Amino acid sequence: MPGAPLSGRPAGVFNGDVRAPEHLLYSEPVHKRIRVEFGGETIADTTGARLLFETAHLPIYYIPESDVRMDLLERTDHSTHCPVKGDAAYWTVSAGGRTAENAVWGYPEPIAPWLEGYVSFYWNAMDAWYEEDEQVFGHPHDPYHRVDALRSSRHVKVSVDGTVLAESSRPVILFETGLPVRYYLPREDVRLDALKPSETTSYCAYKGEAGYWSHGPEDIAWTYETPLHEAEPVRDLVCFFNERTDIEVDGEPQERP
């Protein structure tokens, strides 16, 4: 396992069984240059960030205070307590005539020693994040999260209540860490006449911005018209929710996640 567990309950082997800790907290150095922008100012610019991994949370950057524009931050009275990190102090960011209240936090007397002298930012409170010169959306990239999009000749059929909405023998199958297998199909093999464009959008840190289609009362399919480079093979293809449709692969019904 990468990094050093800091929870006091590291994973291990007990009586022949592999057991996970109830709450895992560990970090590792980030070798990328990380920048944070707000109100037209670069609030942080560092090559010394650490990436924190914590049970039930997305990974998050912690940045040395020495690489943060602390002159643009004002300490507030707000505080919170974490049983594995300690008591957090908060700062409000002010720049360009705008403020983000309690958008930055740190641990003056942390339980995990390496947290001392580092602060973190609420991702969505900032205007932009960069890894090197590439803007990053959604959350930091997890180096242990993979997206594999593979061309296939498997036969995929998608239906709802017995109505076939798509059938293709040229899918791109997308395998993504921690998520169900997804089948992306050429638009020519999809009954787009049975789908209605939806106003729903979402953003994936690894694939980009998705637009949706509905069938009846709910959204059942999506596409990436301008995917990020990891998802380029699924550009303009249509994917159906395994959870909301009946999918057969080579004649075998697939369980709904």
UniProtKB/TrEMBL annotation:
Membrane-spanning ranges: none
Protein name: Uncharacterized protein (DUF427 family)
Gene3D superfamilies hit by this protein: Domain of unknown function (DUF427)
Record-annotated DUF427 domain positions: 34-123, 156-243
Signal peptide as annotated in the record: none
Source organism of the structure: Actinoallomurus bryophytorum
